[in-house]
Amino acid sequence: MRVWIVFLLCLAGHAMAAPTEEEPMTEEPVYEVEEEVVVEDPVMEETEVGANPVQVDVGDFDEAIDIVEEDVEDNPCLNYHCKKGKVCELDEGNTPMCVCQDPSTCPPAEGEFEHNCGTDNKTYETSCHFFATKCALEGTKKGHKLHLDYIGPCKYIEPCMDNELKEFPMRMRDWLKNVLVTLYERDQDNDLLNEKQKLRVKKIYENEKRLQAGDHSLDLLALDFQKNYNMYIFPVHWQFGQLDQHPADGYLTHTELSPLRAPLIPMEHCTTRFFEECDTDADKYVALEEWAACFGLKEQDVDKDLII
Ligand SMILES: *[C@@H]1O[C@H](CO)[C@@H](O)[C@H](O)[C@H]1NC(C)=O
Ligand SMILES: [Ca+2]
Ligand SMILES: [Ca+2]
Questions:
Q1: Where is each Kazal-like domain found (predicted)?
Q2: Better pLDDT: 32 or 170
Q3: CATH code at position 291
Q4: Which ligand ends up closest to the CA of 286?
């Protein structure tokens, strides 16, 4: 049961709020500007009332001192949002602009859980350090290829064997179904599931034929998938929707998939191969159709409207 609680926490909080990377879709400057102006997390929120946000955020070097001398009220950077890895600075004309953050200005990690492993197999102290580093490499091939790989420090990941790769979707779709049922059971007042999702899960929850959570053999998992196929359709769609948020465009990027690794520790070493093979057209995105096929759903059961 304890394991389940950990999974739940992962799902409800940590994993969903896991650092995600906003991938630049185009190099056009117009897009850049639009993205940077979006006020997602107003900088104010993180700052105590009365504190000088400029000092809190930057706190060094000449430019910072210039800014500090200005009236904070008039600081155009205050409500100017920069994407991860960048911070706002003023140019000579007092116009705010986003520049790469110096990784050394990132707040230090409060624990190992904040470490992240990049696809370069380097451990980054926090996601802030990662994005600042990636920003500095912007425009280079190396920077383009650098993504967050998984949460936690880099470690040795054993190779995924063929037979394990086959088990992966079987275990995962069973796990997804159990996660949803558990969320449903515990979530009468919280908002872990929305109303539409609750209606769907209710049907699974109340079905007496449902295979209860447990350490089942692969044969039993396979048999249950045959017998109770319909119960798996929604969980597979649900997970796709949970991951497809940065942006929610019907495709999963490598980075959008990274939160999934954390809760799937027992099969973790197969995630990379699994997702590589899911991307059947090899365009580096896992589309909903590809995702569903990976989990054994039939083509006619893939339904965008189930992502609710
Ligand atoms: C990645 O780094 C970890 C820890 O530093 C190491 O054990 C592992 O072998 C590395 N993996 C690869 C593929 O180099
Ligand atoms: Ca997406
Ligand atoms: Ca694809």
A1: 99-156
A2: 170
A3: 1.10.238.10
A4: 3
Mean pLDDT value of segment 165-171? 86
Q: What pTM was estimated for this model as a whole? A: 0.59
Q: Is residue 22 part of a domain?
A: no
Residue 105 resides in a domain? no
Tell whether ligand 1 has an atom less than 6 A from the beta carbon of residue 154. yes
Identify the three-state secondary structure at position 195.
helix
Residue owning the nearest CA to atom 9 of ligand 1: 156
Domain that holds residue 293: 162-306
Question: Looking at residue 189, what is its pLDDT?
Answer: 67
Ligand 3 center to 276 CA (angstroms): 9
Q: Domain total for the chain?
A: 1
DSSP state for residue 51 in the 8-state scheme: S
What is the number of the ligand closest to the CA of 287? Answer: 3
Q: Place 2 in a pLDDT band, splitting at 50, 70 and 90.
A: very low
Cβ atoms of 134 and 126 closer than 8 Å: no
Average pLDDT value over all residues in the chain:
75
Position in ligand 1 atom list of the atom nearest CA 123? 5
Find the 149 Cα to ligand 1 centroid distance in Å. Answer: 13
For residue 158, give the nearest of 254, 266, 68, 76 by alpha carbon: 266
Q: Do the domain assignments include residue 3?
A: no
Band of the pLDDT at 267, cuts 50, 70, 90? low
Is 90 inside any structural domain?
Answer: no
